[in-house]
Amino acid sequence: DTAVSQTPKYLVTQMGNDKSIKCEQNLGHDTMYWYKQDSKKFLKIMFSYNNKELIINETVPNRFSPKSPDKAHLNLHINSLELGDSAVYFCASSRGQGDQPQHFGDGTRLSIL
Amino acid sequence: GDSVTQMEGPVTLSEEAFLTINCTYTATGYPSLFWYVQYPGEGLQLLLKAMKADDKGSNKGFEATYRKETTSFHLEKGSVQVSDSAVYFCALSRQGGSEKLVFGKGTKLTVNP
Q: What element of type H or E holds A69?
C-alpha cells in the first residue's frame, strides 16, 4: 500500500548516458513534484505538475525532461548525464494548493561514474 | 524571494534531553509552515504544520508555534529518544499561490543512549 513509489531505488551509470526515473502515487493527488537533494542534504524543487500540466519549472538544465502521462505518474528523463547530476531525486505528491502537505517517495540515488 | 534559515547542525544529544531546532523564514504574505523529518535511507515525512500566526503544530511529542512577529517556527521536544535521530527540515509554502515548498538546509540530529 505504498503511497508514493519511485523506481529504481539506486541508479549507477556512466557520464553521457540517458536514464529515466519513474514515480507513481496512489493517493488520488493531482499535483506531483520532483526534488533534487545534494550531498549536503539540501533539497530543491525541480518541477511540479498539476493535472498533467507543468506549473513549476525551476532553473534546471533542459537535459532534464519530466513527463506526466496521467495524474498518478510523473517520470523524469535525464539526457547526457553529467557528474554534477549525482544526487538523490525525490518524487512527491499533494492535493492541490501549496499549503497542503506533500507526501514523498523514498528517493532514487543516482551515481554518475 | 522566499527563504528558510535553520540552525546549522549536526546536533548531538543524550536520550531524554530537551531539543530545540531554530527556524526563521522570509516570505511575502502569510505562508504555511512545516517541519519534515527524514530518517536514514528514507524520504521526507511531514512531522507537523501550522497554517497561520499563533497556530501550534504538534505530533509525536514535537511542537512548533508559528510566530509572525519574529518570523519563526522553532521545533521543540521535551525528551528526545534514540529513534528521533534523523534530519529535520523546516519549510514554507504560499497559501493559495505557488505550489512549491521552500526548504531550509536541514539539521541532522543524533540522539545517543
A: strand A64-70
Record: contact A98-B95, CB cut-off 8 A: yes
Question: What letter would DSSP give residue B27?
Answer: -
Q: How far apart are CA A13 and CA B65, in angstroms?
A: 44
Contact yes or no for A90 and B43 at CB 8 A? yes
DSSP three-state, residue B82 = helix
User: Which residue among B49, B100, B106 sits closest to A41, beta carbon to beta carbon?
Assistant: B106
Nearest beta carbon to residue A45 from set B34, B38, B100:
B100
DSSP annotation of A84: G
Q: What is the CA radius of gyration of chain B?
A: 14
The CB density around residue B67, as the number of other CB atoms within 10 Å, is 15
DSSP A102: P
What pLDDT digit, counting tens, does each position of A34-75 carry? 999 998 888 998 998 888 888 887 878 999 999 999 999 999
User: What's the gap in Å between the CA of B18 and the closest CA on chain A?
Assistant: 24
